[in-house]
Design goal:
Blueprint lengths: L6 H8 L8 E4 L6 H11 L4 E4 L5 E3 L4 E3 L7 H10 L2 E4 L7 H11 L3
Length: 110
C-alpha cells in the first residue's frame, strides 16, 4: 500500500491483461518485500519482480536521505526474495551497482 491501495487487489485487476507480463513492487523498503511477495503470489500467476530501495528514508523537506542501508547484505535479502517467488530482482533508490553485481553472482546459475 502506497496510498492505501492493497497490492493483492491491484494485481487481481491486472490478471486478465496478457500484455502485462510481470507484476511486483518498486522502491519499497527491503523489510516489507517478503510479505509483499507473498501477497502478490497469492493474487497473481504472473512472474514477480522486486526493485526495493536500500532501506534508507528520504526526507523531502531537507532533500536528504536518513538512516542507513539494511544491515544484512542486499544479495542475501535477494536470495530470500527469490525463495518468496521473485524472478526479476533489481534495486531502486540508494542501491548500488555493487548490490546488483552481488545479487547476480548469488542467483545466476553457474
Amino acid at each position: 500500500m502506497s496510498q492505501g491501495e492493497r497490492l493483492d487487489e491491484c494485481l487481481a485487476q491486472l490478471a486478465g491483461f496478457p500484455q502485462i507480463v510481470a507484476v511486483g513492487v518498486n522502491c519499497s523498503a527491503p523489510e516489507f518485500i517478503d510479505s509483499l511477495l507473498d501477497d502478490a503470489r497469492a493474487a497473481s500467476a504472473k512472474p514477480l519482480l522486486v526493485y526495493p530501495n536500500s532501506g534508507e528514508i528520504y526526507d523531502p523537506t531537507s532533500k536528504c536521505w536518513h538512516g542507513s542501508a539494511e544491515d544484512d547484505s542486499f544479495a542475501r535479502m535477494a536470495a530470500t526474495w527469490h525463495q518468496h517467488g521473485a524472478r526479476l530482482i533489481g534495486g531502486c533508490c540508494r542501491t548500488t551497482p555493487a548490490d546488483i553485481r552481488a545479487v547476480t553472482a548469488l542467483l545466476r546459475p553457474h
